[in-house]
Write a structure and sequence with these properties.
Order of helices and strands: HHHEHHHEEH
Distance between the termini: 28 Å
Structural class: mainly alpha
CATH architecture: Up-down Bundle
CATH topology: de novo design (two linked rop proteins)
Largest sheet: 3 strands, antiparallel
Number of domains: 1
Shape: elongated
Helix content: 55-70%
Radius of gyration: 22 Å
CATH class: Mainly Alpha
Number of strands: 3
CATH superfamily: Gap junction channel protein cysteine-rich domain
Length: 205
């Protein structure tokens, strides 16, 4: 791929053809990723080390932590961010290969339809991630986790485990839910903006 294609691709990703799309990029690329990268590591970085069960043995702690966290929240949210970016990346790669200028995307129906489809896919992926987050993490992190250690052939099948910094994790969970909702609202608003531009209610850029 030539340097011109790469430049067009990067400009398309960083500067979408709509005002709301540009705001979405700013929100998604700076606030959301910064929140996850910096605060997420601070909240969840040492969780496995401080997760302790009764009896406090390494094998029990490790077994129960894997049961408590089938996937760590940082990994889940990082995957979510990457996957949600894929539809837009494909569109801007297509636009770069076809030498489509950003200002022309909202002028031709086929380009506009393709772009709206990529935004709609973002909405679907965000909703699916929202549902998966509920299934994996719920809305609240309890201070005590009851772990089933029957597979370890222990005397007692259920043991109590202490979850470190559970209140901070609950706040972080709510924040990530909020970010997902905001992103979906921005995507819906972007489709609405495109529709208004196509109908002539707003001037094209």
């Amino acid at each position: 791929m030539s340097p011109n294609y790469i430049r067009s691709f990067s400009e398309g990703c960083l500067r979408p053809p709509t005002v709301i799309g540009q705001f979405h990029t700013l929100f998604f690329g700076s606030i959301r990723m910064f929140f996850l990268g910096v605060l997420g590591f601070a909240v969840y970085g040492n969780e496995a080390l401080h997760f302790s069960c009764d009896p406090d043995k390494r094998e029990v702690n490790l077994f129960c932590y894997n049961q408590f966290r089938p996937i760590t929240p940082q990994v889940f949210w990082a995957l979510q961010l990457v996957i949600v970016l894929v539809p837009g990346a494909f569109f801007h790669l297509y636009a770069a290969c076809k030498s489509i200028k950003q200002e022309d995307i909202l002028q031709k129906s086929s380009y506009t339809g393709f772009y709206i489809f990529s935004v709609f896919l973002r909405i679907v992926l965000e909703v699916v991630a929202f549902w998966l987050q509920i299934q994996l993490f719920g809305f609240k992190v309890n201070a005590v986790y009851m772990c089933d250690v029957g597979a370890l052939e222990k005397k007692f099948n259920i043991t109590r485990c202490m979850v470190p910094e559970h209140f901070e994790k609950t706040i972080f969970l709510i924040a990530m839910y909020t970010f997902t909702v905001i992103t979906v609202i921005l995507c819906v608003a972007e489709i609405f903006e495109i529709s208004c531009r196509r109908l002539g209610f707003l001037k094209t850029q």
